[in-house]
Specification:
There is one protein chain. This protein is α/β, with parallel strands linked by helices. It is 40% helix and 6% strand. The chain contains 16 helices and eight strands. A four-stranded parallel beta sheet has the order 1-4-5-6, with helices on both faces. α1 crosses α16. It is globular and about 50 Å long.
Length: 430
């Protein structure tokens, strides 16, 4: 079945046609863009793990285009391909020569390897873990709740008497675990940017950056599980960024501000200092806008009361990021948060559902009891053949916002592409 993901409105202009599903003969970009480069997390991942983190296209093994691919097409730049290849849940990857999309699902600005990440990288043991505890399985969820040995070791000195003893026992083990004491994995966004700089970035390249949402989810998860682990995960995460506030609300704000600074420092070192002059950077969407938070509010104790604070933390990050790039003409800021808010209320876009996942859940989390999903098996054909109660059209899902509880549908990717393209037009790039 051919799916029309986005119908162009009267506001769309010729330069946007490729992102709206047609118009190959439209005018070209205003500036010469040699190549599009991408770094970040799930929403920019062009296929690191063999699929994209959205609904899969039953009619095309390459999948529906994500927003970065649509933007590249609008600029008439070479098609994107993923630079990294790996197994979902691992911290080690192979690379593909000539591919400029560095984004990997699961990436963080402040990546802290979990025990699950580390075990999956070990010879023999990793294979056993991958087979016995597939990503998303109950055992995997538990292993991902446990910090990597590097984080454990960093906090042991605070334990009187036993700290030094435990460190002596665990350090030799940690030395054998990749990422235990230093994050060298490309799941750290800084390492993606470093690889991008190594490839070579110049004034003719457009760089698209989308990162931070997984970091925000880490902070929210650590805060909400404090009743289970007595706040250990939250304290450990705060410590990883040198947060000094002991009040959790203030600590979260300090952490998110430091996160924005860390991100900007990486961009400055690996992109600006190397000659990049066109950087489209997306901020974080409002956490309230995802189905996952709606699910958490109904399931997890304390989640409802925490919502204003979680929103505040995201706004702290967005405001600090905006301040860091303010006045620098090399940046094109895309307000992801506002884009979603506006799309929900725009009658021209005919959004049918902005808070319910299109894909069916496949189970519940072992610890948080929230719905889990398998995007790899969520195909357009399956959705079209199984409309929910009250729906009859096979296209029922094509104007949903979310594929699962956090990841965009092809429709939302089209809206993202439109939002990026509009900002590129304002900047005189497209």
């Amino acid at each position: 079945m051919t799916i029309r993901i986005l119908t162009c409105t009267a506001l769309a202009i010729a330069a946007l046609l490729s992102a709206c599903g047609g118009g190959d003969d439209g005018p070209g970009p205003k500036t010469d863009t040699r190549v599009v480069r991408v770094a970040g997390d799930d929403q920019g991942d062009a296929g690191t793990f063999g699929f994209k983190f959205t609904v899969q296209d039953s009619a095309n093994p390459n999948g529906f285009p994500i927003f970065t691919e649509l933007v590249a097409a609008s600029l008439k730049a070479p098609a994107l391909c993923n630079h990294y290849r790996g197994i979902n849940g691992s911290v080690s990857f192979t690379t593909q020569t000539g591919c400029t999309s560095m984004a990997i699902a699961g990436s963080r600005i402040n990546f802290q390897p979990t025990l699950a990440n580390q075990l999956r990288t070990l010879p023999l043991i990793g294979e056993v873990v991958n087979n016995a505890a597939p990503v998303g399985s109950p055992v995997d969820q538990v292993l991902n709740m446990l910090p990597g040995l590097g984080s454990v070791l960093a906090n042991l000195p605070s334990l009187p008497l036993v700290g030094a003893v435990l460190a002596g026992v665990l350090q030799p083990i940690a030395d054998q675990l990749p990422g235990a004491t230093a994050a060298t994995t490309p799941l750290l966004v800084d390492n993606q940017l470093k690889a991008m700089a190594t490839q070579g970035v110049n004034a003719q390249d457009l760089v698209i950056l989308i990162a931070g949402s997984n970091d925000a989810a880490d902070v929210a998860t650590a805060f909400l599980q404090a009743s289970i682990d007595q706040g250990i995960a939250f304290t450990t995460l705060m410590g990883s960024m040198g947060v000094t506030n002991t009040d959790r609300r203030a600590a979260g704000n300090e952490y998110m501000g430091k996160l924005a600074d860390k991100y900007f420092a990486s961009i400055n070192t690996h992109l600006l200092a190397k000659g990049a002059t066109k950087i489209a950077i997306l901020n974080m969407p409002n956490v309230v806008q995802t189905p996952r938070l709606s699910q958490a509010r109904a399931t997890i104790q304390g989640a409802e009361a925490a919502v204003p604070m979680l929103v505040e933390w995201v706004e702290t990050y967005n405001n600090k990021l905006a301040a860091n790039i303010s006045g620098d003409k090399r940046f094109v800021q895309v307000d992801y948060r506002k884009l979603i808010n506006d799309a929900i209320t725009d009658p021209n876009l005919l959004v049918t559902n902005s808070d319910t996942p299109a894909c069916p859940s496949t189970g519940t989390g072992t610890l948080d009891m929230l719905p889990t999903y398998d995007l790899k098996s969520c195909t357009s054909g399956m959705l079209s053949s199984n409309p929910p109660e009250g729906q009859t059209s096979p296209d029922w899902w094509t104007r949903y916002f979310f594929a699962d509880s956090t990841h965009p549908t092809p429709y939302l990717h089209n809206l993202l592409a439109r939002g990026v393209n509009l900002e590129l037009i304002r900047a005189g790039i497209l």
